[in-house]
Write a structure and sequence with these properties.
Layout: H1 2-7, E1 13-16, E2 31-34, H2 40-50, E3 54-57, H3 64-67, H4 71-91, E4 96-100, H5 124-143, E5 147-151, E6 155-156, H6 169-178, E7 183-186, E8 192-193, E9 196-197, H7 202-207, E10 217-220, E11 227-228, H8 229-240, E12 246-249, E13 257-258, H9 263-269, H10 277-291, E14 299-302, H11 310-313, E15 316-318
Parallel strand pairs: 1-2, 3-4, 4-5, 5-10, 6-9, 7-12, 8-13, 14-15
Antiparallel strand pairs: 8-11
Helix pairs in contact: 2-4, 4-5, 6-8, 6-10, 8-10
């Protein structure tokens, strides 16, 4: 995102607490501020110092399945942190607030999901994303804050944190293969997702402020073709040049089939060629093989241990 914004001629300030990323990912030419959107004093200082025109809000802890067990953490980071940014955007007269939501707002049984589909989120992560969407809409109605909302899904690609145990299945698979471990799949692996290479979403999100038809609208954005998780495992193993070894874990509560329709985005931003799964996975695998495995982090302070998948229970500390 930051690279594309720089290419479009914007001056870019990146705020990140590095809980899920790395300072090496910040492109040359962008100003970096380490910190959290939960820090209201910091965000207010940045808004005053840099006199922003646009806000691109991509910060979130995007672990849908884990969000059931870390509700307080989820809502603090993904909802209250967003409110800090919305407040500052209103008070400082921001021209456009661009927010990356998620197709997690839709829930189950509504594929292909369209922007007119009634949101029925089935996890705390999706609930928080939907709440931020509603906050943006009422902030527009009340204060005139213009926005663009994107609902991407299952994004993967180079520079992703493959050491995260709880989110981004492509990165999890690749890290497990590099460590000589089998790829772990919850349930029978017939879950379906349309896995999206980052190059198919970042340029559209970056450029959206230059499209009048995007103002105060919501868009699905991402890949069109769903694959099962079993299919994904085979594609990842082939791209990594390794044997496809899989370990099936007990099922977890999750939406079985999730993919969306992108007709609205194509109408506003134009039809663009999308990266085939095998091509995108191969590009990420080349980057991963070059940089190597990452040490997997563990999540601290599980708030609800009941029904926590056993594969997670051994790598997380329960709050007492």
């Amino acid at each position: 995102m930051a690279e594309h914004l720089l290419e479009l001629g914007h001056e870019v300030v990146v705020l990140d607490d590095l809980s899920g990323g790395f300072v090496d990912n910040v492109p040359s030419g962008a100003t970096f501020a380490k910190g959290s959107i939960l820090n209201q004093e910091l965000t207010e200082r940045l808004f005053k110092e840099y006199n922003f025109t646009y806000v691109y809000h991509l910060a979130a802890y995007a672990a849908e399945g884990l969000s059931h067990f870390i509700k307080r953490f989820n809502y603090n980071n993904n909802l209250l942190g967003s409110v800090n940014l919305i407040n500052a955007a209103v008070n400082h007269g921001i021209k456009r607030f661009v927010f990356t939501s998620s197709i997690a707002v839709y829930g189950a049984g509504q594929t292909p999901m369209t922007e007119d589909t009634t949101p029925l989120p089935e996890d705390s992560y999706g609930i928080a994303k939907l709440a931020v969407e509603r906050e943006l809409k009422i902030s527009h109605e009340m204060f005139g804050l213009d926005y663009v909302i994107f609902r991407p899904h299952n994004v993967y690609g180079e520079r992703q944190n493959i050491g995260d145990r709880y989110r981004n299945v492509v990165g999890i698979f690749m890290n497990q293969l590099l460590r000589g471990e089998p790829m772990t799949i919850f349930g029978d692996g017939t879950q379906q997702r349309a896995f999206t290479h980052v190059s198919d979403v970042a340029p559209i999100i970056a450029a959206c402020v230059d499209f009048p038809g995007a103002r105060n609208e919501t868009f699905n954005v991402g890949a069109d073709i769903p694959y099962t998780v079993n299919d994904l495992a085979r594609v990842v193993a082939a791209a990594m040049g390794m044997q496809c070894k899989v370990a099936h874990l007990e099922p977890r509560k999750e939406v079985k089939i999730a993919f969306s329709d992108h007709t609205k985005a194509e109408r506003v931003f134009g039809v663009r060629l999308k990266t085939p799964l095998q091509v995108g996975i191969r590009a990420m695998a080349e980057w991963v093989n070059e940089h190597g495995a990452r040490e997997s982090s563990t999540f601290e302070d599980i708030e609800i241990p009941k029904n926590l998948p056993s594969s997670w229970a051994g790598i997380a500390r329960v709050r007492t």
